[in-house]
Amino acid sequence: MNAEEKLHQLGINLPAPPPPAGAYVPVMTEEKLLFVSGQLPISEGKVIYTGKVGADLDLTQAQQAARLCLINALAAIKGHIGSLDQVRQMVRMEVFVNSASGFIEQPQVANAASQLLEALFGARGRHARLAVGVAQLPLDAAVELALIAAIG
Question: Which domain holds residue 133?
Fold first, then answer.
């Protein structure tokens, strides 16, 4: 079963890729690497999860935000190359968490997206990762996620 069939099996429909929120492109290809710009937890044109994790949102909500960011990143990849089946390997994921003072569970927030990648792609979904807390994110988003993937 391919990644898109697994998405369907999990009840996840990829949305149209969100438009860039600034002067950049959503995905850039260099050789066999795709660099996916930071994706926010946007649905139907609106940031769904806003505020500080650990104050305005709890860990479960932050994990849902990370999954939504990943879904948007996958939509951007599909929009750029036509099919998720062209992804050979997820290389690196970067997760930025809009963290309240004292919130230290950024890795657990990122785990929600990491686990979804592995569920969709199997061993090809395993990746290196960065998960950090930040003082603020664009549009007051709770989480932002970027990906690097190998294709071919």
Answer: 3-11+32-151
CA distance 91 to 103: 27
Total domain count, the chain: 1
CATH number of domain containing 78: 3.30.1330.40
pLDDT tens track for 99-130:
999 999 999 999 999 999 999 999 999 999 99
Q: Which residues contact 101 (CB under 8 A, 6 or more apart)?
A: 54
Half-sphere exposure in the Cβ direction for 118 (13 Å, CA): 10
Q: Is the pTM of this model over 0.90?
A: yes
The count of C-alpha atoms lying within 13 angstroms of the C-alpha of 69, restricted to the half-sphere facing its C-beta, is 31
In a domain, 18, yes or no: no
Rg over CA atoms, the chain = 14
Mean local confidence (pLDDT), 82-97: 97
Q: To 10 degrees, what angle do helices 106-121 and 59-81 make?
A: 40
Q: Is residue 140 part of a domain?
A: yes
